Amino acid sequence: MRPRICPARLALLGALVIAGCAAKPAPGGCPAVTSSASIVAAPTIAAPTTAAGPIRTQAPGESALASGTLVALTPAAGAGASAGIFAATLAEPAGSATVTLALTSAPTAYRRPLAFARLAAALGMHVVPAAAERHVSAGEIAALLEPQREIAALVGARLRVLNDGTVTALLVASAPSALAPGWDPRLARRVEARASYEVRTWERWASSPDLAAGEDSRVTRDFVEMLVLDYLSANATRRTLLTSARGDALVLDDNREAFPVTAPPAAVDQLLRRLKPVARFPRGLRAALLAFDRESAREALAPPGSFEEWLVSPRGLIELDERRAGLLSLVEARVAERGEAAVLSL
Asked: How many Cα atoms within 13 Å fall on the side-chain side of residue 25?
C-alpha cells in the first residue's frame, strides 16, 4: 500500500517547509517536523512500491551504499549544489561516495547511470563503481545540510519529495571495489575518451593479436570493457574517463548519458566501429553475454512490478538485446578465426 498523501501538505504545496519526517507519522497523519533546516517540498509524489521478483546479483560494495549511514554532505567538485550532486561521507562501513538527489526538474535522471552500473555488474566488468538507489528522508538531508544553510536553501526548493517524506538518491562509490583500498580521487587523472594520446595507445594495444610492446594488459582490458559497455548502453557521448595515479587502471565515473531515450543509429554504429578492430576481449565476456539474455536484462534493468522502478524502457531492452547479439557475433567470429585462448585473453 502506498503512503497516504497528507491533505495539509497538498494545501500548502510550494509554500510548506519540510524539515523532515519522523520515523512514524504524527497523530494527524502528517509527517512531524524534526529539524529547523529549510527543505521546501516539491509536488507530492507517491513513493515507488517494490514487487517480489528474482533476486538480482549485487555488485561488490552495493549493499554498503544502499544501507550505510550518511554522516556528511558537501558540494561535489565540478558540480553545482543546485544540480543536487554532493560528495558524501559514509559510516558503518566508512567510505565516500557521490550522491545525486532527485530534483523536480530531473526526477528520474538517476536511472541511466544506475542502469549502466547494473549492466557492468551483470557482465562482471571492472571499470564501473558500484551504485545503489535509496530513499533518504528530507529530515536527514536537512540535518546534513544544516551547517550549510545557503546550500540547503538553494537545493531544498528543487528536491522531489515523495509523499512518504523521502527523496530518491543515487549513491555511487568513488571507485570499483577492487581499486577502493588504494584509490585516491585527488590523484586520479582525467583523460579525454576519444582522441587523446592515451586512447590512441590503448586502441593500438587492443587491436594487437598478441601482447604489444609496453602494454599493460589490465589497462587494455579496462579499455575494451569501456568500449563494450558504451556500445551496449548506446552511450555515444562519453567525454572523459579517469586513470589511476600510476596509470594502471581505468574508471568510468560519469555515466549519465547511457541508455538514451532515443539512440541515433549513426552514433551507435560509430561505437560498433570502435569495437571492430579489437583483437582480444576479457576472458569472461562471451559467457557473460550468453547469460545476459533478454530475461536477465529485464530482471536487472526493468524488474517486475511498478513501471516506476524500470531503469530502461521495454524498447530500450529490445535494442540492448540486439546490440548484445551483435557484439556476441563479433566475439564468436574472432574466436573462430584465432581460437578461444588467444581471443578471450584479457
From this structure: 12
- Grid coordinates given for 220: 587494455
CA neighbor of 258 nearest in space, from 301, 194, 305: 301
Contact 141/67 with Cβ under 8 angstroms? no
3-state secondary structure of 193: coil
C-alpha torsion angle, residues 271, 226, 330, 199 (rounded to 10): 70
- In the predicted structure, residue 129 carries a pLDDT above the cut 80: yes
* Dist CA 312 CA 316 (whole Å): 6
% the chain with pLDDT above 90: 63
Distance CA 190, CA 57 (A): 30
Domains of the chain by start residue, with CATH: 7-47+62-104+129-173 (no CATH), 187-343 (1.10.1070)
Alpha-carbon distance 174 to 255, whole Å? 13
Q: Please give the Cα distance from 102 to 110 (Å, whole number).
A: 7
Degrees to nearest 5, angle at CA 238 with 288 and 201: 80
For the ranges 5-19, 51-65, 188-202, 250-264, the lowest mean pLDDT is seen at 5-19
Angle between helices 314-338 and 217-232 (to 10 degrees): 140
Which whole-number Å values give the CA distances from 149 to 19, 36, 155, 168, in the listed order? 13, 10, 10, 21
Neighbouring CB atoms inside 10 A of 17's CB total 15
Q: Cell numbers 592515451 label which residue?
A: 198
- Cβ contacts of 312 within 8 Å, gap of 6 or more: 111, 115, 259, 297, 301, 302, 320
Assign 56 a pLDDT band (cuts: 50, 70, 90): low
Three-state SS at 266: helix
Arithmetic mean of pLDDT over the chain: 84
Residue with cell 583483437: 279
The pTM assigned to this predicted structure is: 0.84
Q: Which grid cell sits at 175?
A: 571507485
